[in-house]
Amino acid sequence: MDQNNQKPAVAVWVVTPKGAGIAQRIAGSLENVTVHAGKSAGGPEDALFFDSMARAVEKHFRSYDAHVFVMATGIAVRMIGPLLDSKHVDPAVVAVDESAAFAVSLVSGHLGGANAWAEKIAAITGACPVITTATDRAGVPAIDLLAKQHGLTPNNPEAVKAVSMALISGKTVLRYDPYQVLGPELGQWTQDISTPDFGSRPGIYVCHHCPDLPENVLVLRPASLAVGVGLNSGTDATQLCEAVYSAFKRHRLSVKSIREFATICEKTHEPGLREMARHFASPLTGYSRAELAEIRDVPTPSETVEKHMGVKSVCEAAAIKAARSGQILVPKQKTKNTTVAVAALDFLL
Asked: Where does the Cobalamin biosynthesis central region domain start and stop, copy by copy (predicted)?
């Protein structure tokens, strides 16, 4: 799958020589393409051949970002049907007929990118792209796709339906987006509000805070929070994770908005700290004493920390530094072996 900005991995499936010819055109026009072919279909020299397509698709379905089936749509549907989970995790699936007349986006049109893949395949083969997602047909923005493009994590993806239906129906959707993370794309379809008071209307909430909101409000989490961490040597990941969860719960913040963890350089080798960062799927940054000393205005400087580490603050200074001199939302929270502070990135910088 696509990781670390590598080119998306694409599988092209064929069962006939005619389909193999189309597959070769696709493989010759895109990078990181693997052709899977029935043994009687032929195909490029580096093709992977199968005896049973059903078993081969089942084996490789999660190994690719996109699948292109050069065959009847019905066959493709039967192959992938038992393997589907949800549009939030399924790879893109496109079906192209063997005459290259149509390229049909079948699964994961927005989040998986099948709509875009259908258009790419159509451009290569001369086919007509077939896009059936409701928002595209209605000419309104796809909020799940916009969220992905802007690096926002849905907190309640089930609310996408309520917002999309409102947009399709021509209703104005309320939007609380104080930093305008979503940008101008939703301008004519949404009404900005200065406080998260949605009443009973469907809406979009873009923030790291966790107020009580109606079920028809889509909550999108920006990667906006930097977490500064101090710890005693040997502190395990369980204690560190508990400290983070406790601080976020107490101050009603979402851990889905964690952008990165930060500490003093000397602590970045701690196994517990590294494991905690992996648990939250966030990077860990270390700052030197000189860099932390640049942050002079910290809420709770410590003479003890200065005595042992050479700086007046680790967790608060590291959080502010990582947040590009952002505002402290959670001052130092202390447990027996940890200190945690949280700062918010200023999106207006």
From this structure: 141-222
